[in-house]
Amino acid sequence: MLSGKRLLLIVSGGIAAYKTPDLVRRLRGQGAEVRVVMTAAAEQFVTPLSLASVSGQRVYQALFSLTDEAEMGHIELSRAADLVIVAPASADLLAKLANGLADDLASTLLLATDKEVLAAPAMNVRMWEHPATQENLARLKRRGLLIVGPDEGEMACGEYGPGRMAEPDAIVAAVAEHFNMPRPLSGLSALVTSGPTHEPIDPVRYIANRSSGRQGHAIAHALAHQGAAVTLVTGPVQLPDPAGVKTVHVESAREMLQACQAELPVDIAVCAAAVSDWRASEEATQKIKKDGSSLPALQLSENPDILAQLSKAGAQRPRLVIGFAAETRDVAAQAAAKRDRKGCDWILANDVSAESGTFGGPDNSIILIDGQGREDWPRTSKEGVAERLAVRIAQALEGKPEEESRMPEPIQDGQQK
Ligand code: C5P
Predict the structure, then answer these.
(1) In angstroms, what is the span from residue 361 Cα to ligand 1's centroid?
(2) Rounded Cα–Cα distance for residues 181 and 140 (Å)
(3) To the nearest whole percent, how much of the chain has pLDDT over 90?
(4) pTM (2 d.p.)
(5) β-pair partners for 348
(6) What's the CATH code, domain 6-180?
């Protein structure tokens, strides 16, 4: 049942749009409230009047409408929903979303929403199979877009293959599954650090590293998906803020520590950021100039260790503190020693040697080290690692009182569980 759920349905241009009145009727039949937004192309396939009458609400079409803005601003429209559904999701609308275009009401809402988005793609089979569409989808999935369908079958254009929009009852089932899926981390809060830090040398230069932030961002999203209230504290990255996550942007390690401390207490902390170990002892107020003779000397100071600080015993210590250990050799042994040194509960060790392709790449292979032993996870995407970690965290905290949820003693390298 979808009683009380507020859904925003975005209808884009495709023959499958003719099925949307039926979709709206079914969603309302489950108790949901449905507001509809249409693209200009969608109006070629289904009329605003039909959708207004089945939804029992006016239909939104124009981006720049004074009446609409007075009634409900377009940002508000996407934020007042519990879930945004795009059905049919055309190749064009998916491409806009993948690239952050916002040139009509539908694409603007998709860019402005902080809610999860469920898309039901529908297009000609060749368009579906085109590398551009597949690349856009891969990118959107990485950001957490939920997808239902498409189905395979005969298409309106006479061709056969994948590209037909999922049937309305399958879309309703996917919506219901989204709301009803068990969320074992509901009621828990999590803090995740991600990305590199930038340590200023002078107004134009900084010390940084190659971290992309992909692993940390994926973890924040996966924890939120399992029901946790997540704050992501991220250094500078080329990634969008994950849906359903409060994101705080920082530059330096010291700013990152401050932002993390401001979030305490939390139940779970995952430090996935590649924090710079050092910073310039003094930041020059003016650009350092070449003077042709002597080279400038860079004096370094050690940065605060955020993971170690969060792991310190005390009333504000999270129930579970997890760190990463990026190593290039003796991965498990180095990571176990790091776990001891930092005082965290789990270390996720990964091989970042040049041959591994992990740093900045799409995949990761993990050895999880807790107080009892090691688990070797098969190499998988960073999103896969994040999902597995979120499930593992939920299992570890499930029903356990606070003291018991602390992880026990460290292990020797090579010792298998
Ligand atoms: O000491 P090292 O950088 O190898 O430790 C890696 C782990 O420690 C990661 O979880 C990273 O996020 C965390 N870390 C931190 N603050 C630092 C250095 C590392 O939180 N200054």
Answers:
(1) 19
(2) 21
(3) 66
(4) 0.71
(5) 324, 368
(6) 3.40.50.1950
